[in-house]
Fold this protein.
Amino acid sequence: MGAAYKRSSNNPERILEFDLSAELNHGMAVSNLAYAVAMQLGLDSKLCYELAIAGMLHDIGKLKLTCYINGQECNPLVIEELKYVRMHPTLGYEELKDQGYSDFILESILYHHENYDGSGYPSNKAGEEIPIGARILRVCDVFTALSSDRPYRKAFDRKTVMELMIEEVKNFDMEVFIAFQKVVHNT
């Protein structure tokens, strides 16, 4: 599978290796980028601020997943981890829904893995069915994830990240993607 993704039977790489520091850094990066994209789109300042909060909290459901993944006796198969990883938006929503966060924040978190073409999760929403906050988080989350080292691969350089995102542009709201590009290319 190439040098970017190596596995060994002694120490298998895992999709979900929970590193709190890395998750916090990821959340801050998504938060800052989402705020800037929301501003670029001309959203109300209150919504921009709420989107920054959603960006910071968007992967909080992964905290619940550590017991599924890391608490098991033997190393789970990667496909099993994928099934659990896909639960994190719903787990995050459930964890936060009674803690005073707005519906905008909660829905942005719940639907941040929905793809514009309807191929995402947890609800296979498409297009305008996906709340604007989630559409913004989707682009920012992908960019930040591709730009960062992961347990299973090294970070891609900015040019490669943009090429990969353009190849998968069907996943993104085009208006959001253009605003995102303006933000990224001005930093």
The chain has one domain: 20-185. The mean pLDDT is 85. DSSP finds nine helices and no strands in the chain. The radius of gyration is 16 Å.
